[in-house]
């Protein structure tokens, strides 16, 4: 689609200025798409946080090295990123809308932009897995309402239909057969199961399933998993499961660098944290990590054991990221200790969250109710952030896709610091804090 975008942009501009050339338009296209992306980036962050966080994030992303080198390139990356940010904004608008009509309209718009992203670059997979993962968490937290089902169905339905019209059943089959592509379709099955059993209660299924003492979201996942296994066996055959296990192993242990051929390509090498310091700067890198911890605390602050949960998350994010610190340290990503901390942090944190989720459901219904009241914006940001961290620790090439969420969390932390100093009653602390923060940002 990048080629068509440049071609039609040329025809449009050539109408006003006959002397303009295709070569010039090709050079003009990256900053133009960067400008459009910046607008939607600000609007997205303003919806998730506020205008101050949005303004700082959209300012910093203009010149951060990890983003700058591709935002001025005539490759497809900038156009794809523009569509990714537009898609996230449209879906959040759909999710936050009160009227069903508006939800469905923005769900359809999200689908159209998703298709444009898919026709532009492979990084569009982030759209599928982030929206699918976010919606799945909302189902687990029992925050998925009946009116949320229809925009999600409109989105995944139109994406499927347009992909079928473009490439036939093979395109659909390859999408569902991929690890990232299967997430939104599996989530759709879970959402449909939840609608049939609990929201509509066809054939009085709700009363029957309530006898099984499990959360609604867990029931939906189990039923959807059984249906998925049967459909996968029919469509793909028994070899499908072995290939998926192989893909999961590759994703967890090798990602892009699974053979000598891919290792010779510089952008496929796994990065180190010290390289992030070079790309983002130490201040932004630390602000990003501290911002994610602060955001996690904001999400769980109304829940019992909030301090222990936040400490667990802080340990997880620091250990997970710094397990691949530098090639000369013991945490080089290859040593036994490095690998143990890398995978142990991830599995340990997931285990703690599952344990707390199940414990509150069975032993503390009031706390479980508060868990289900967590603002959806936190789930969206954390799904985007965790998936981006996993991607950015796997290959240098994905640092670019990681940058927007880094800017969001770093800006959230820095603006929170500003608000803290600004609201202090002591004049010395207030003004000295603000001046130091301004100097820090300028630096």
Q: What can you tell me about this protein's structure?
A:
The protein has 443 residues and is mostly helical. Residues 259-264 have low confidence and may be disordered. It is 78% helix and 0% strand. It starts with a helix and ends with a helix.
What is the compact description of this entry?
This protein has 443 residues and is an all-alpha fold.
Q: What percent of the residues sit in helical stretches (DSSP H or I)?
A: over 70%
Oligomer: single chain
Order of helices and strands: HHHHHHHHHHHHHHHHHHHHHH
Terminus-to-terminus distance: 39 Å
Topology:
Elements: H1 2-16, H2 22-48, H3 51-60, H4 65-71, H5 77-96, H6 100-118, H7 125-140, H8 146-167, H9 169-176, H10 179-199, H11 205-209, H12 216-236, H13 239-253, H14 260-263, H15 273-280, H16 282-300, H17 306-322, H18 336-363, H19 365-371, H20 376-392, H21 399-422, H22 427-442
Provide tags for this entry.
443 residues, 22 helices
């Amino acid at each position: 689609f990048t080629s068509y975008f440049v071609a039609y942009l040329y025809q449009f501009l050539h109408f006003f200025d006959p002397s303009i050339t295709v070569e010039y338009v090709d050079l003009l296209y990256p900053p133009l798409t960067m400008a459009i992306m910046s607008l939607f980036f600000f609007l997205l962050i303003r919806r998730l946080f506020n205008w101050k966080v949005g303004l700082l994030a959209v300012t910093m992303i203009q010149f951060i090295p990890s983003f700058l080198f591709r935002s001025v390139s005539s490759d497809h990356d900038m156009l794809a990123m523009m569509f990714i940010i537009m898609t996230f904004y449209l879906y959040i608008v759909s999710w936050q809308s009160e009227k069903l009509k508006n939800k469905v309209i923005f769900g359809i718009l999200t689908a159209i932009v998703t298709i444009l992203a898919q026709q532009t670059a492979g990084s569009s997979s982030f759209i599928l897995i982030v929206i699918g993962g976010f919606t799945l968490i909302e189902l687990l937290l029992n925050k998925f309402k009946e009116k949320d089902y229809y925009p999600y169905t409109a989105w995944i339905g139109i994406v499927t239909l347009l992909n079928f019209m473009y490439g036939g059943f093979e395109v659909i089959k390859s999408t569902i057969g991929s690890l990232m592509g299967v997430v939104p379709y599996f989530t759709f099955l879970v959402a449909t199961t939840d609608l049939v059993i609990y929201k509509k209660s066809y054939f009085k299924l709700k009363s029957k399933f309530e006898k099984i003492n499990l959360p609604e979201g867990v029931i939906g996942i189990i039923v959807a998993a059984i249906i998925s296994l049967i459909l996968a066996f029919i469509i793909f055959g028994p070899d499908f499961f072995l290939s998926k296990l192989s893909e999961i192993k590759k994703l967890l242990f090798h990602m892009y660098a699974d053979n000598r051929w891919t290792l010779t390509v510089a952008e496929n090498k796994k990065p180190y944290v010290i390289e992030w310091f070079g790309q983002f700067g130490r201040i932004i890198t630390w602000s990003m990590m501290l911002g994610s911890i602060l955001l996690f605390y904001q999400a769980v602050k109304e829940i019992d054991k909030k301090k222990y949960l936040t400490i667990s998350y802080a340990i997880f994010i620091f250990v997970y990221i710094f397990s691949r610190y530098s090639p000369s340290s013991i945490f080089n990503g290859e040593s036994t200790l490095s690998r143990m901390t890398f995978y142990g942090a991830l599995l340990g944190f997931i285990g703690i969250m599952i344990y707390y989720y199940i414990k509150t459901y069975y032993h503390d219904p009031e706390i479980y109710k508060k868990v289900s009241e967590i603002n959806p914006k936190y789930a969206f940001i954390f799904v985007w952030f965790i998936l981006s961290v996993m991607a950015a620790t796997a290959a240098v090439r994905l640092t670019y896709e990681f940058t927007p969420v880094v800017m969001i969390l770093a800006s959230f932390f820095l603006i929170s610091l500003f608000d803290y100093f600004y609201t202090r009653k002591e004049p010395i602390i207030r003004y000295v804090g603000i001046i130091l923060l301004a100097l820090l940002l300028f630096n």
